[in-house]
Amino acid sequence: MEKPDHEKMNKSFSSETDEKPPRGLLRMLFQHADWKDVVLMGLGTCGCFIDGLSVSAMMLVLSRLMNGYASVSSLTPADVNQISIYFAVFLAFVYIAIVVGSGAFLEGFCWGRTAERQSTRIRTKYLKAILRQQVGYFDTTLEASRVTTSISIDTLNIQGILSEKIPNFITNMWMFIAAEITGLYICWRLAIVAVPAMIVLRKQLSINEEKLQEAYAVAGGIAEQALSSIKTVHSGKNGEAVFNRARTDPDSRYQTRSTERDGVWEHGNIYAMWALLSWYGSVLVIHNGIKGGDILSAGVCVVYGGFGLASSFMNIKYFAEASISAAIISEMIDRIPAIDSSDQHGTTISPVKGELEFKDTRELSSENFNLKVKACQTIGLVGRSGSGKSTVINLLERFYDPLEGEILLDGINIQSLG
Q: Is 315 within 8 Å of 333 (Cβ atoms)?
């Protein structure tokens, strides 16, 4: 027998069950979640909604408080006792703090707990799926480094998404929706003016972020090239040249320029938007009789709602990374190997005599291999290196299946054994 070529050997695996398309992240969440995890995710989502309502609730109470401050100057001595009404506003802030704090606790605890439970369950299932695969799969398809990467990095990506990114996305998106609705409710005229300005600001910031990411990619590429050939760089005394290249590269220099420019641009636009809201708010107060507290609260709602929308979109790239990790892990967990070590179905021999027979077995050699071993018989396989001695043992242990022929144990094909 010749030494087996594992690439050819694994052609026999083509009869395996067709691989299913990889599942996405959302299906991954519920695929490995039990009823406790569903309850935890439900409570955590409720906590996200409560946490996202904090800005809207505070601005509703603040508008009442600011309007109350403005009306104090018009009170007569007989109406001074009515000032005690505004103590209810302070109590409202206390109640908001308690409710929002409870919601934030539910958000962090429930999502963190279910992330830990599900990631542990995923690691266990992934390890079991790895151990049930045939040896030929690791020879040609899956490298050992991929196994350690998936069981550590990929599961950590999923755990990070569950514990932090998903609740952060829900909270900020709900804060945006609730804040914009509250701003429209308090003063719809001001909200309509503020929303387009916020969209322009967010658009410019996203463009700057894309340029900054490109600049970091260029600088990272220069650094990676230098570090991968550090001996060459050091022996040739090219360290200064690499440093100058990174410093003078147009894309890399964008990092330094963008730090100052983006800071001025971002904060300048924020203050410019507040100036616009202040000016238009004064117009509404003078000509439409809108109260000052409503102007302030509506403006804060729109601005902070825009920040919430931007913060929620920052998590989308992490969702894409976690979806890839979830697809890789799901593909392995769902894969049914041709030689399934966990399959309990099949023929059972009782009692086992121990008679072995290789009947017209051909692996990769041009000749069929035949061998009969009686029970309790001791034999020795002799041959030159690479003649296939170890292949006989591998076939007997079902690390691989022969291309032709069969291996019999007490007259029964070992492929039919459970």
A: no
Work out the pLDDT band at 341, boundaries 50, 70, 90: low
Query: For the whole model, what pTM was predicted?
Result: 0.72
Nearest alpha-carbon partner for 401 in 339, 336, 344:
339
Residue 372 lies in a domain: yes
In the three-class reduction of DSSP (H, G, I as helix; E, B as strand; rest coil), residue 142 is classed as: coil
Residue range of the domain that includes 26? 18-74+81-207+247-334
Rounded-to-integer distance, Cα 233 and Cα 224, Å: 12
Quick one: 8 and 61 in the same domain? no
Tokens of 397: 């242990």
More confident residue, 15 or 268: 268
> Distance from CA of residue 83 to its chain's centroid?
52
Q: Are residues 164 and 292 in the same domain?
A: yes
Q: What CATH number does the domain containing 131 carry?
A: 1.20.1560.10
Domains of the chain: total? 2
With left for phi above 0 and alpha for psi between -120 and 50, is residue 327 left, alpha or beta?
Answer: alpha
d(C-alpha 32, C-alpha 121), whole Å: 7
CA nearest 306: which of 202, 178, 224, 166? Answer: 202
pLDDT digits (tens, 9 = 90+) for 294-306: 998 998 998 888 8
Asked if 292 and 394 sit in the same domain, the reply is: no
Q: Which residues pair with 417 in a beta bridge?
A: 347
Q: Is residue 213 part of a domain?
A: no
- Compute the distance between CA of residue 341 and CA of residue 335 in angstroms, rounded to an integer: 13
Identify the CATH number of the domain in which residue 362 sits: 3.40.50.300
Report how far residue 98's alpha carbon sits from residue 61's, in angstroms, rounded to the nearest whole number.
15
Q: Which residues pair with 413 in a beta bridge?
A: 408
For 341, counting Cβ atoms within 10 Å of its Cβ (0-12 exposed, 13-18 middle, 19+ buried), the class is: exposed
